[in-house]
Amino acid sequence: MENRLQYINLLRLLATVSVIFIHVGSLLISSQGLERQSPDFMFYEWCHQFFSFAVPVFVLISGSLLLDPAKEISYQKVFRKYTPRIVLALIIFGSLMCLAEAYTTRTADEGFLAILFRSAVNLLTGRSWAHMWYLYMLLGLYALTPLYKAFVNQSSPRDLHCLIGVLAVMCVVMPYLKITQLVPFEGYIMLPVFLFLYPFGYYISVYLRKGRTSCIVSLAVLVFYAFHVYYCIKTGFEFRGYDIPTVLAAAAVFHLGSFFTMKKSDLLENMSRHCFCIYIIHAVFLNAFFKVLHVENFLNAGPLGNVLIVVSATFALSYAASSALRSIPFLRKRVL
Which of 77, 98, 106, 298 gets the highest tally of CB atoms within 10 A of its CB? Predict the structure, then answer.
C-alpha cells in the first residue's frame, strides 16, 4: 500500500509538470508568431500536444483511489468532503481569474458593477481561465462516484471487463471515428472520455498485470504516441487532445508508474500535496511572464532551453506560492 501511494504521488507530480509543459508550448507559439513549419514551432507544438496525457492521468489516479472497494464513499461524503473543496477553489481562485479577465477585456463604457456581474456569470457558466475547466469536470465525476462504486463493489471481474469495453467504445472509439470522419456516424451523441477514464484507472490498477511484456508494450505505446503527435503536426492533421492515441498514452504512463518501487519519500509526499494548488495558480505566473513581462523577447536558449527555463521558473514560483497559501489554515484544510 505504501509503495502504491508513492508511485501515485510520482504520477501526480508528473501530470502537474506536464500541464505546465502544455501551456508553455502554446504560449511560446502564440507570443512569437512563428511560422507553422519552422523548427521552433514544431518543437513548441510538439510539447503542447505530447503532454496532453496529463489530465487523463489525473483522472486515472482519481479512479484508482476513489473506486477502490476498500474506500467507502457515499453521497453524504461526496457533498460534505469532496465537492466543497472544489466549489471553494472555484469561488476563491476562479472568481479572481474571472474578474481579472473581465477587467482586462472591459469596454470603455463598462462600469465596475458590470465587470463584476460579467465575471460572476463567467464563473457560474464555466468560462474562467482555460485550465479551470478541470475543476468543473471534477464536480461531475465526484457526483458519479457513488454510482460507479456501487457497480464496482457488486460486480464480478467479467462485469467490470464488460463495462470498460462498452465505455471504451462509446466514449473513445465512436467519438474518434466521428470526429475524424473515418466513419460518418450521424446523430451519435459523443460521451465525455472521462466517463471511461475514471473507472479505467481502477481497472488498470487491479487487472493489468505488471510484467516485462506489459512494460515493453507501454513503452512502445509512448514511442508510437510521440511519432503520432509529430505526424499530426507535420501533416496538419487535426490533433484531438483526448483521442485514442492520447488515451493509450495516458494508460501507458499510469501503468509504467506502478513499476517504480521506492521507499517513503517525505520530499515526494510534500510536493504531491502541492500539486492541486500548483495546477490552479501556475497560470497566474504564465500570464505574468507572457502578457506583462513578455519573456519571449529575452529567451535565446533554443527551443528546448526556452521551454525548460519557463517550465522550471513557473513550477518553482507556483510551488513557493502554494507553500505560502497552504500556510493559511483555512486554505490548507478546506481547499488546497
Answer: 98
